[in-house]
Structures are given as C-alpha cells and as structure tokens.
Amino acid sequence: MKDNTDILKLRIMLAFLNDCGDCTVMGLSRTLGEKHYTVSRAISCLEKEGLISRKTKRRPYLTKAGRDRALFYSERVDTTLAFLLSSGVEVESAKSDGLLWALYNTEDTMRTIKETVKKRRIKDILGSRKQFMGEVLCRNMDDGQYKLPFVIYREDVKDGNNISMANEGFEHPCTLSIVNGSGILQLRYTDMSARSQATGKIMTGHVKYVKYFDSGRYINADKNGDILSIPASSLTFKNIGKGLNRVFHGMVSLKMECTVGEFHMPEATAIFTLFI
C-alpha cells in the first residue's frame, strides 16, 4: 500500500498505539510494507511535531501528545470502518479508505457517520423483532442526539392528501434524545401558512397544543419554549425490510389544535410517524 506522508504518519502512530511489536524503524518498515528511509523520514516528522520521542534511539515511543492524537484518530478509523463495512464495501478497500476518511473528514461529517453507524447497529440488534415499543429501542441504543425524519398524517384523506397541516408546524427533522437508555422526542415549533379559501390570502398560524396517546389515554405533551417533548416510550415501532433496506417505522396517535389567522381549528386526531 503506497501512502502519502500524512497517511503513513497516521499508520505509524496507530502501530505505536496498538503496540504492533517491533516498533523500530526496521520493524515498522516490515509491518507497514514501506521502505526503510520512508518510515525513518516519517518518524522524524512526527518527532519534530512532538508526537514521537527518540530519547531511546532503538525504541521510539509516542509522547503524551502523540498518544492523545493517536487515540483520536483510532476512534475515527474504527467508526469509518464500521460505516464502510456495513455499507457493503470490501474489507481491503474499507481499510484503505477508512484511513483517508479518518484523517480528512470534518467533525460534522464524522458526527453524521457515527450517528449512522449507531442506527445500523440498533437495526442489527432488533432486526429479528417484527414490532417493539420505543422504550425497547432506546434501551438498546447508545446515548446521543439522533436526527430523524418524520411525517404527521391526518386520520382521513382530504382532497387526495392525508398529510396533516400540523406537519408544517414543526421543523424537520425531529431529534430523538437518549440519556441513560431513556428517550425523548423533541420537535421545534415553527409558524405555518395556509391560503384562505374565502379570500385567497396567505394566513400564518401555529400548533396550539399537542396530546399524545399512551397507556390508554391522551396526555398533554410538555412544552418548553419552542420545544415540544414526547416520551419515545409512547411510540410503537414496526420492522420493515431487510439488511441495508431495513426501516424501523415508529408511530403514535396525537390530538392537537391549530390556529390559522384568526381561526381556531377544532381539535383533530393525527398520526405521528418517524423513520430510522
């Protein structure tokens, strides 16, 4: 495997971190399949950067800064490998590209990859279940903030459309926040607009309140500022599809009231659905 200098330096740091055995220049040259002088030059660069010490000439070692850097990239490599392998990439290609991704991806990209890996992991864990509750999902997922797409449907089709007006009353996507195995769905309110059938003018409005169905009754959802919170335990999930095409479809019944302009719409029942 032919590397540019940055990739080779990363491979050397990971070799030291994982204590590959013979971490001399000659040993690393054999382990990494690189020429002796190429490895020696890369180690000299790492030494100048304060990441490797050669106080013991025959046995270089990672400094504290070097170990911290190696640990940082080691986690990135593990994450990208998990993502690429679960995407069907061949092992050797995943190993090669995983180093590039770990080294050059932005933090934002890595957060997205990590979140995707966690979602795929839960699909492996619960993949044999046809249906399960939200509390089971959250108990088996890692703590974190997960961005999830959702749709709010009306109970009945109207004018060939069954998407609720309330679907525009929240920002998309929503957030599933899991702490200590317990999950809360968080939706951020936003103004919505509709054209008056009487005047043709655009009117703005908002969702006034939301109740969710749980344990045989409708319960008022918590509202803190512009954030609406619904316990993830109130959702029922269905397992659809297989492999990379598997989707967890979560649902909960809602009652809500919306206002548009000066009009207060009557309380209506809707179905909140999300997808993992």
UniProtKB/TrEMBL annotation:
Domain of life: Bacteria
InterPro entries given in the database record: NEAT_dom_sf (IPR037250), WH-like_DNA-bd_sf (IPR036388), WH_DNA-bd_sf (IPR036390)
Protein name: Uncharacterized protein
Source species taxonomy: Bacteria, Bacillati, Bacillota, Clostridia, Eubacteriales
